[in-house]
Amino acid sequence: MPLNILVITADDMGAEAPGCLGGPSWTTPHLDALGASGAVLGHAFVPIAVCQPSRAAMLSGRWPHRNGAMGFEPMDEHVELLTDVLREQGYLTGALGKLEHLQPQDRLAWDFTRDRADLADGRDATAYGASARTFVRSAREQGRPWFLLANSHDPHRPFHGSDEEQTFYPPEVRDAFPEPSRTCPPDDEVRLPGYLPDLPEVEREYREYLSSVRRCDDTIGALLRVLEEEGLVEDTLVVFHGDHGIALPWAKASCYRPGIHVPVVLRWPGEVEPGTRIDAWTSTLDLLPTLCEAAGARVPEGVDGHSLGPLLRGEVSTWREEVVSVFHENSGGMRLEMRGLHRPDRTYVWNAWADGTPRYRAENMWGRSWAAMVEAAEGDPAMAARTDFYLRRAPEELYDTQVDPDALDDLASSSEHADDLAACRAALLRWMEDVEDPLVEQFRAHLGTTVVGA
């Protein structure tokens, strides 16, 4: 019988949080243990840093404009999905949580579902474990392999212990949330990501986020215990990934690297050696063909990713030399077209919307951090410049990520980096032409009118 497949997805967890990727040692003990028994992908990226389109890209293996879900609309009916090809192989399919962001529901046609109301708004590890146990036992009774997509609602806002949590949820919902098995106390040393300013309220919110990361890890642990107790460890491929980065400025809902760099951890019995570390650049677009290979299923036509099997088995050492990020629409329906080209030493961002009139707006500006930045800007010219840039952007940005990994110094107007800028523009244009990006003509027009240093 083919391998069972468990895919665990975290909501808004960036690569800076897990211990196995250099985060605090206490945040993700279960995820770290999973990585130790399989592979940790150190440079994994999502194609788009917003929830529903990112999940649609994983389930279709296609770029958002090629599966139809560029914003919060369902995927096109003609696009074959992971569930289609697994169902051909006899798989029982199930989904836990985030069902509103798995569209179209009728096409996905899950055999088993539990949604946020069954899972304490997607934050109760015990409920995830119980639901998973019911599902895998049903598959055993039917003699079928299974695919379970378990979507944690952590560490999405509202973060654990935040004022936002108190005001967002009614008491009867909030009281049902379990405490994380560990929280981040005020006296713990916390290293803020360098793209965030060192302000007390930013640090406080980041601590709340880390506590929510730990509660997500509790859910990972509950799901993995089900495999152990049901005797399914050696029969199950497990993949964990984040859908995009943290919901703070310069990460989620952007084309910057913190928004698309996510944790991916994989355990593939019989194929991947425990303790494997992959530092090649990979994409979550690669997960669908990888899972198809593991299941012995065909790969749908039109898929943009490639199976990670050869890389995970050590048959090849290189993968991608660059990744592209896209953004189309925020959760409020505001169109904010952006493209990013990312190489180990460069990040280039084209902001198609930034003509000086619109002001950027997204969920990453909720909560403490953005408010603290705006307040600090009143007496700090450097902070004022940074917040103003965040709202308005420039048509294009260029960063030397070897010396400036947090993308603080935009070099797009620097004559010294004109060759770098030209190379990144050309590479992004090639990609847009190859995938028939709907904005390719607009980008050509931009390149025809842009003068370096103007």
From TrEMBL:
Signal peptide: none annotated. Residues 4-297 form the Sulfatase N-terminal domain. SUPFAM superfamilies: Alkaline phosphatase-like. Keywords: Hydrolase. Pfam families: Sulfatase. CDD domains: SGSH. GO terms for molecular function: arylsulfatase activity. Belongs to the sulfatase family. This is Sulfatase. It comes from Nocardioides bruguierae.
